Amino acid sequence: MVSLIADNYQLIQVMSRFGIPMGFGDKTVEKVCSDHGVDCATFLAVVNFIVDGFSNYDTDNNVSVESLLLYLKRSHSYFLDYCLPAIRRKLLEGISLRTTDVSFLILKFFDEYMHEVRIHMEYEEKTVFKYVNNLLSGKSSEDYKITTYSEHHDLVSLKLKELKNIILKYCPEDANTNLLNDALYDIYRCEEELSSHCHIEDCLLVPAILRLERNRN
């Protein structure tokens, strides 16, 4: 496990979202997953997707939907409760609200983006994940199918692109450059992580749910 993480530092977040803490010594990936009750095939499918952008595994059969749902729920908590609020604090500290309308516009755009991300993720929690849990418990629904979700899966990336352009083009002169640069870097990183999050849902979760739906018919 340690060599895997050392070569791909972005997997630290993957470990956290699977509930795997650091301090695993020289244990193998399989042993670490077993110790923490994580489905190893699902962990490796997500790892491979994060590192390579695709999966070498037959995910339609090997992915544990329960483990993947837990991973996605923890990802939502990370974005909504930590990542996005932390960026907002940096923006607030980095810009001056006393002088220009641009400062207010930056915060307005970011707050609107946070709101839309929250709405999207709450929809997933209350509708999509609830539907999946019902399937897992043997209940079917004629009113909803996972294809409905995949057809409308969008994380309002356009608004985040507009925000980045505003900061790059119209950054207030009296802004704290280091703080604003740090916030902008975090915005780019968050955008990449959210994009990866969406791809995992589309390419790992949706095929697994389609299999569940077929088995219920």
Automatic annotation (TrEMBL):
Protein name: Hemerythrin domain-containing protein
Species of origin: Lepagella muris
